[in-house]
Amino acid sequence: MYLRMGLVQMSGSRMYWETDTRHPPIADVMPRNRFQSLLTKLHFVNNLTVSEIEKRDKLWKLRPWLESFREKCLQVVPEEHNFVDEMMIPFKGKFSSIKQYMRGKPHPWGFKVWVRAGISGMMLDFDVYQGSKNGKRVKSELGLSGDVVLKLASTLPKGQNYKIYADNYFTSVPLVVKLLEHGIHYVGTGRQVRLPNCNLEDEKSLKKKGRGSFDHRVEGTHNICAVKWYDNRAVTLVSSFTGPEPVQEIQRWDKATKTYIDVERPYIVATYNKYMGGVDLLDSFTAKYKITLKSRRWYMYIFWHTITLAVVNAWLLYKRHCQALAMPKKEMLNMRKFQAQLASSLILMDTTLTTPKRGRPSSGSGNPDAAGSPLTARKRPSSDDGSPNCPSKKSCAHPPLDVRKDLTGHFPMKVKRGRCRHCSKGYTNTHCCKCDVRLCFSEERNCFWDYDSIENVKKDVNECAERVGEAEVRISAAEDNVTGLQAKGAEGEDACAFLENWLPEALNLAPLRTTLTLERAHRLGQKSTSNTAAPRTLIMKFLNYRDKATVIRAARTKGQILFKNHPVRFYEDLAAGVHKKQKEFDGVRQQLRAMGIRYGMIPPARLLVTHNGQSRIFNQPAEAENFVRTLKTESGPG
Fold first, then answer.
1. Which terminus of the chain is more exposed, N or C, with fewer CB under 10 A?
2. Count of CB atoms situated within 10 Å of the CB of 418
3. Which DSSP letter does residue 133 get?
4. For residue 143, what pLDDT is reported?
5. What is 401-457 written as a DSSP string?
6. Do 232 and 173 share a domain, yes or no?
7. CA 175, CA 183: separation in Å to the nearest integer?
8. How many domains does the chain have?
9. Same structural domain for residues 426 and 340?
């Protein structure tokens, strides 16, 4: 009901039940008094069993819910680029010890939440700020801002080239060094006072050189780069993996000449502008369809905000899955439709639909003047009433799939004859009271069962499985497998760094334009304590697909490759479905090999056969078997 209130917002929750402003999608779910009674009884912890130590936590009344929600957020596969910033939950009440004021924010009064979000706006980790303890701030090496970034980054996998972006409130050189120790890179705007012994040109000298001028310095020990760039004013950026090169030319509006001019922009500025702003995007998503329910308990404002955040995360995760399945954008649900279907599923799933009666029985049924009174409730005319002048009723949309397949409360009712919603061919007078659609229910056709049963989902599951297989092929296109490397101590703690140094040396690669970079690398299977066990396969994913093609080509050209007198083999990593499909061609390939006919596999799983100077491609093993059978017939018994 809270999600439906966010879609149709009113100034007070009582208005959804009032006569003049009644909203049936909410008012028909439950009575107003029951809704408000449930709100007063909503608690997250037993106040009588909480210890004094637990009460030291200022959020102890909401802690179980926050921990459960954070655990679900951490289960989502993180994005490569993450942005850290603060988020404000609006609140102007008096009875809260963690309320903060931040000047310049759209909602300056409220609760501050530290958030790590991806470039898509998905919240991946968070922490509610509780202020100082007993009026004292605990001093640390990195300070409050550095500790926040380090805490939110601690839940990222280490040594897999994840990137953190933040503004100048968080940036410091000790923080960048600390993140590098965990294998996490950093880019952020900085303050000159937090860059000791970094003598960059001042803003006046850069202004004299003109727009686009910049100065940079590189710290030699950890390879940290600081760049000061002047556009309308000077801005300083700090990074551990990018710098000013390559310099790009962009267009900027010049007020003096009233034309666009070309301005040089360092690459670090373009990188920061591209991947920052994930938390701001999340704020814009949460503000779209959110309603504020007033309460005397201040922590309820945090709870309702986390409900909205959960809906936004679910929608963004749904979009990620749709993109992985190569679903057209027209078929994807926008946030409004997604939230509406989610609300309908939560309300209707596993329930029997009943419409509660409102108020006292009407006494105007026997009064002839009551029919013409504007206060008498009347149904909107439709084509079902049999009136010839009534406009035709629009066809209703399908209910959510969760509601259709819950096998609860789908009772048939007899109504006026109309077109079936499932087959769209037959006409029927049977109506599903829960799905609110007409469905055929006769000896010849039983659309009632097909529409509301689990069996009809199998086709959709099979289609999704095929799309998932195609997505796995695209994902594995940048992955390679290496077998033969010794299982103990070969790659050390950082497999990516080991392979980036060993591959060019082992394959005699010519100097590349860019450094060979791996996104991640790890062993497959479980560790074995036996010294005679075969080395486990090492799988690696390249950041650039061209690097993968170069490594595979060099491995095939060189032939035998040794590591400490052990043979090493390279092969492309393919999805399980592709391996299975390629294996179906094994029988045909054996026959072609026996006949001396040239053949080969075309990714992902197609057979190329060359015979008498002509090449043919087969998508299915049956087609190739028919071709081989034809060749045997033409060649004769001999």
1. C
2. 17
3. B
4. 87
5. HHHHTS-SS--EEEEEEEE-TTTSS-EEEEEETTTTEE--BSSS-BHHHHHHSGGGH
6. yes
7. 13
8. 5
9. no
Q: For residues 82 and 153, state if they share a domain.
A: yes
416 backbone dihedrals φ, ψ, rounded to 5°: -65, 145
The DSSP string of 466-491 is HHHHHHHHHHGGGEEEEE-S-TTTSS
204-226 pLDDT tens trace: 999 888 888 999 998 888 889 99
Q: Give the Å distances, CA to CA, from 487 to 157, 479, 507.
A: 22, 20, 20
- For the stretch 57-103, pLDDT in tens is 899 999 999 999 999 999 998 998 999 999 999 999 888 888 999 88
Q: Is 24 buried (19+), middle (13-18) or exposed (0-12) by CB count in 10 A?
A: exposed
For residue 138, the one-letter residue type is V
d(CA 238, CA 226) in angstroms, rounded, equals: 4
CB atoms within 10 A of CB 208: 10
65 domain residue, yes or no:
no
Number of residues that make up the chain: 638
Rounded to 10 degrees, the C-alpha dihedral 340/346/352/353 comes to -20
Q: What is the pTM of this model?
A: 0.65
pLDDT in tens, 464-517: 666 655 555 554 454 556 655 654 456 676 778 788 888 888 888 766 655 677
Q: In sequence order, which residues have a C-beta less than 8 Å from that of residue 201 and are 6 or more positions away?
A: 215, 228
| CA separation, residue 633 to residues 19, 56, 442, 627, 637 (Å) | 84, 87, 54, 10, 8
Give me the helix-helix angle, 278-288 and 299-324, nearest 10°.
110
Does residue 303 sit in the same domain as residue 204? Answer: no
Query: What torsion do the CA atoms of 330, 323, 575, 579 make, to the nearest 10 degrees?
Result: 10
